[in-house]
Structure formats: C-alpha cells, structure tokens
Amino acid sequence: MAQTRDQKQELIDHYEGALAQSRHAFLMSFDGLTVTQATDLRARVREQGGSYEVVKNRLVLRAIEGQDLGELKDQFRGPTAVAYSEDPVSLAKALTEFSKDVPAIQFKGGLVDGQAIEASEVESIASLPGREELLAKLLFLLQSPITRLARGLAAIPRQLVVVLDQIEKKKA
Question: Considering the entire predicted model, what is its pTM?
C-alpha cells in the first residue's frame, strides 16, 4: 500500500528526531532475516538501551542530510536497518554476537561519537570493555591512592601507641 505524503513526512520527522540526533549508530543489511530473528534482535538491542529500526532509504536520506549520520549516505542502499544507542560498545557487542549466530546480518558501516566508521571496525569496537567495566577500573584507580593515604594516616596513631607502650614497659 502506498504511503500518503503526510505519512512520509511523519516518518521523516521521526528519523530526524531519533536517527539524525544519534551520535552512535550501526547500519546493517538484513537479507534473509526471519521475523523471529528480527524480534530477537530487537529484544537484544533494547536490552542494551538501544533501538533497532528498518528504514526507508529515500526518506532517511532526507532526514539525515547535514547531520553526522549523513556521512554514511552511500551506505543507505538496499534493505537497511539502523541500530542506535547511547552506549556504542554494548550495542556493538550485542550486534556482533547476534551476527555470528545469524549470518543474514551484514554490517554496512557505523557512526561512533559522530565519526563514520567502516563495517570492519564494528568488531573492534565490540572487543572494547563496556562502560561499566571502564568505570569500575577508573574507580579502582582513583580509590587506590586514597586507600593508601588512609592506611598511612591510621598507622601513625597505632605506631605512637606502640612506642608509648614500649616506653612504659622500659620504665616499669
């Protein structure tokens, strides 16, 4: 069924609001993907706090013109789906894990921090540690000097008590 001009404009507005503003997105083709697999992929992407959309190329190209995602305009050919999220590493992990099980998913390219990346770089991004893991490492590194300082400061009164105790024993 053909879409009316209003329906097309609604889609363009949606793409402008969601996709065009996204700083992290991955483009993929999905030839041969079953409905069950697509549903599973959407659920995995949603678990990572992202969204997965099959897009209409002509309409999305109008929406992303002049935006960061516009750098990937040559990739919008054939059946195209876009997955986007605030955390590119966890999204890339979910997508690459899914693409290993389902060869119908082929990466076309992506956008990370507003910079276009090649399809081959998606797996490299997926191998990076996740945001939570990086924050935990940072917290450990920040906490380590403070912990050592606290232990050192706690040792001073303890050593003073030991010295005073030895002086008392010597006098007695």
Answer: 0.71
Among 41, 140, 26, smallest CA distance to 92 is for 26
Beta strands 80-84 and 115-118, pairing class? unpaired
44: Cβ–Cβ under 8 A, 6 or more apart, which residues? Answer: 94, 95, 97, 98
User: In 10 A of CB 19, how many CB atoms?
Assistant: 20
Q: Name the CATH superfamily housing domain 5-128.
A: Ribosomal protein L10, N-terminal RNA-binding domain (3.30.70.1730)
Q: Where are the domains of the chain?
A: 5-128, 129-172
Would you say 29 and 80 are in contact if contact means Cβ atoms under 8 Å apart? yes
pLDDT tens for each residue of 56-88: 888 888 888 888 788 888 888 889 999 998 888
What are the strands of the beta sheet with 51-55, ordered from one edge? 51-55, 80-84, 25-29, 106-112, 115-118
Residue 127's CB: how many other CB atoms inside 10 A?
A: 10
- Euclidean distance between CA atoms 52 and 5, whole angstroms: 24
> What's the token pair of residue 164?
């005073």
